[in-house]
Amino acid sequence: MTAHATEAPTAAPSAATQHAAPTLRDAFHQPKSVWAIAFAATVSFMGIGLVDPILPAISTQLDASPSQAMLLFTSYLFITAIAMFFTSWFASKIGVKRTLLIGLVLIVAFAALAAGASGVEEIIGLRAGWGLGNALFISTALAAIVGATAGPSSGAIILYETALGIGMALGPLLGGLLGSVSWRAPFAGTAVLMAIGFLAILVLLKKEDRPAHVSPLAALKALSHPALRTLALTAIFYNFAFFTLLAYSPFPLEAAAAAKGGEFGAMGIGGVFFGWGVALAITSVFVAPILTRKLGLIPTLLTVLGLLAVLMLAMSFAQASMPALITLIVIGGLLLGVMNTALTETVMEATDLPRGVASSAYSGVRFLGGAIAPAIAGPLAAATAPGAPYLLATGTLVLSMLMLVIGRRHLASVGQHHLSPAEEAEAITTGDEV
């Protein structure tokens, strides 16, 4: 997704400038236009986890089953996945700034409409429109922030990475805080914040040269590349497990609290997933680069996938213990942060395809895995046992490992060179855009 930074709309900085080691001065000494995009990006990433704490409340207050409530993730992710295959082409047709603004308008409109919705089916449909807007925005935001930066691109990427981490962590917390007032409040809050971001970008971001033309089928054709196809298959099974943890876990948490005679509530769920988001951000930025350098990319991927499979298996047996579930969710964030970054860095090294095209193809496929998970988890739990979705996720993680092992012969080029600081930061931001 964010690999579109290679198609930045303004004149490219010199190679020495692009690959200079990022510093705090590079990251935070930026023009107002860069800060405007960073603010909008933070809110956009907040929107991913925003609905998590309010899923049980939506289920209860709108007389919907947990399966129906979790479809808020499915509709959002499915449309995001489909749109990802074509966002680089769309931006090349109308320009990066217009793509950003159209994405923000869609998010504002559909989030505001969701705040006034009267039924869960209506919210599911509106979340699909929200997903389209988010795909357009996040697929071009890094390109815009690099194009508008005043210094080395590495500094702008670090700022974007910071915005991502803050957004991923604060999204569930804000959802919990506003959701404790009403399930409608998080949607309304997102619409207001994104409207501010829209105005800031409209006023502060200069008109750019149109990016190089991209074929509308470029991302789909890229999947014929054996290395990219291997990693896409690895990602689709991995993301099934990722979104099983993210979308399904609020319901076992609520059930565990109810079994003790209490109520976990939106604030409690938001607090747990705030810890999850902080853990994910820390390991993606600080731990993943260390592990991939010491162990190598493929060994890191296989190790973390194995640990995630063990964690999911443990969660399947921890349904009655709220402390155990909370602990395992936060530990899951630590592992997911490493996995996201390592997998995306592998994608960036594995092919000679343009990074924007490879990233669009990879992101589209992996989001499909995320879209399927919530649609299956609810009905499976209702038909069998509360721990069954985690058991299924354990199986998909094993399949993810098998895809990687079977296709390893196509990944011979991985690990033969190290990314520059700017490219490594880009891998982190791309990987963390869940």
UniProtKB/TrEMBL annotation:
GO cellular component, one term: plasma membrane
Pfam families, alphabetized: MFS_1 (PF07690)
SUPFAM superfamilies from the UniProt entry: MFS general substrate transporter
Domain of life: Bacteria
Subcellular location as annotated: Cell membrane
A GO MF label: transmembrane transporter activity
Keyword Transmembrane: yes
Ranges of residues in domain Major facilitator superfamily (MFS) profile: 33-412
Main location: membrane
Keyword entries, A-Z: Membrane, Transmembrane, Transmembrane helix
Protein's name in the database: MFS transporter
Keyword Cytoplasm: no
Organism, scientific name: Brachybacterium alimentarium
Entries under InterPro entries matching the protein: MFS, MFS_dom, MFS_trans_sf, Tet-R_TetA/multi-R_MdtG-like, YfmO-like
Bilayer-crossing regions: 34-58, 70-92, 99-118, 130-150, 157-179, 185-205, 226-248, 268-288, 295-318, 324-343, 364-382, 388-407
Membrane topology: Multi-pass membrane protein
PANTHER family: MULTIDRUG EFFLUX PROTEIN YFMO (PTHR43683)
